[in-house]
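// run 5 | inverse folding | seed 20
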């Protein structure tokens, strides 16, 4: 980032400060308002459809949890903003990771909101703010266009898959909590949720951790995203076959497949893994000599 112009570094710094303040001062109220509206609707719906009552406990836990993570992310953005302005290289992967928090959490909180409350998607404001930082930080980097395209597409897919996988995990828990035969499992269509839900959540962790490493063009990031996408694909396909009432697992499998293809396309992989590009450069140089 030190090769980046002072004006661009100023933009990065302003983004960090504004989004940091948003996560500290505005996002907590948006989350609380959204949560209370969702819970109010769930209390009404669950009277006639008890299977929705599990959402009350889960959302009461997960909305505040993501809010707390976002709050800390906001504090971190403010703390590192002087280093961002100085152009320290490490701030690029760190800031991307921090912007991923509101982008993913806002999208997750949006889905219950739009399903039960409707109207203007209030939690999406959080996601939009996160995406502004996420995409802006990628697109304003002083690198070759091919590098920006590879980062933009792959890192966006990583975020989309992480969001969907987290939602899948929550959905699995919601169904398991209200299953009729608990604590027993009435056949494979129920016990498979204890595998698919947890595998998707593990995939979320791997995907989130992969973001800064992909930004640094480390093979570690590529491998983490590869393992996460492969795991989600392999578990979601049989789960979709066994549980045919929803297409959510199919959608997750398709997103994972697209990410897997993107990670392995030579045109992208060359820009995602610095070691690979250097080896190709050295091979070309040796052949010329």
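// decoded
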């Amino acid at each position: 980032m030190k090769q980046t112009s002072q004006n661009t570094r100023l933009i990065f710094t302003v983004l960090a400060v504004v989004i940091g303040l948003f996560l500290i001062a505005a996002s907590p109220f948006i989350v609380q308002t959204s949560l209370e509206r969702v819970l109010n609707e769930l209390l009404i719906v669950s009277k006639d459809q008890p299977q929705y009552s599990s959402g009350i406990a889960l959302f009461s836990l997960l909305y505040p949890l993501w809010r707390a993570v976002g709050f800390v992310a906001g504090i971190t953005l403010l703390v590192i903003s002087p280093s961002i302005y100085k152009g320290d290289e490490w701030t690029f992967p760190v800031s991307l990771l921090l912007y991923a928090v509101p982008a993913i959490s806002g999208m997750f909180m949006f889905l219950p909101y739009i399903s039960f409350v409707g109207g203007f998607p209030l939690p999406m404001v959080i996601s939009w703010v996160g995406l502004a930082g996420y995409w802006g930080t990628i697109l304003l980097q002083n690198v070759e266009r091919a590098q920006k395209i590879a980062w933009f597409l792959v890192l966006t897919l990583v975020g989309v898959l992480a969001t969907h996988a987290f939602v899948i995990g929550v959905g699995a828990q919601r169904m398991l909590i209200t299953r009729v035969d608990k604590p027993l499992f009435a056949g494979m269509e129920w016990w498979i949720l204890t595998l698919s839900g947890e595998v998707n959540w593990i995939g979320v962790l791997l995907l989130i951790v992969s973001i800064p490493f992909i930004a640094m063009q480390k093979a570690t990031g590529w491998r983490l995203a590869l393992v996460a996408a492969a795991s989600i694909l392999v578990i979601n396909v049989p789960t979709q076959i066994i549980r045919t009432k929803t297409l959510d697992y199919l959608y997750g499998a398709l997103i994972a497949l697209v990410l897997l293809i993107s990670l392995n396309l030579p045109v992208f992989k060359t820009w995602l893994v610095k070691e690979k590009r250097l080896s190709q450069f050295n091979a070309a140089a040796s052949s010329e000599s």
